[in-house]
Amino acid sequence: MTELGKQIKEAVDFIRTRTKMKPDIGIILGTGLGGLAKEVRKDTVIDYEEIPHFPVSTVESHHGKLIFGKLAGKKVVAMQGRFHYYEGYAMQQITFPVRVMGAKGGLGVKTLLISNAAGALNPIFQRGDVMIMVDHINLLGDNPLIGPNDEELGPRFPDMSEAYSKRLIALAEDVALDEKIRVQKGVYVAMPGPNLETRAEYRFLRIIGADAVGMSTVPETIVANHMGIKVLGISIITDECFPDALKPTSVEEIIAVANQAEPKLTRIMKEVVRRM
To answer: Which residues, in sequence order, are bridge partners of residue 117?
Structure first.
């Protein structure tokens, strides 16, 4: 067993002392998007700092709790708070919770729902919009799969032609239509942060095909695909990053917009889980 395999086992063994639940669905809640956690009928809540080898989020808006329970009648495990490259964590640390969720001998997760806050690059997007992620561009300058590959976890060269499940994208679109929530679809680009980008950088990102920009999600998606987990990614558009009309913004404003739009995301996520 590799060192990573041992760490996963130690984390899972500890979690099993607190709950025997085997969730089918994992959920990662992003900036200002923790409201979905209130919808989970909780069975067990574990602080990250209690779990062996789990990082602890340093971002104020991320609570740092692993929540087990039922959402819309389905067994779920939700990460209330995630980790970012700009916090100084290695990619393997950022994605460790996803390994614990889905690795062989892990918690049993087969599907991962990820949310995030993102800035609009596509000029038809507006702040407060919901964007279903159809693909991504990794500009973090790193990859969680670099280094020795553990064949127990996944193949050396995983395919990423369907990084985000077409079936889950279609399901989310159907839910949004039924719930009368306008959604966009687009490509998400991950930047390392923590600064927001310059006008020239936003222009470049749009030219290469990105519709929204953020600082998360891509590492977790890569690792989920490595393990054969199906992924649905949804962004809340919190600010407009249009180079020729760029206005200063702040994290406080971004979180405020995320909080306002969060009920739409919660309705979509909850109903997607119900229909899965």
So the answer is: 236
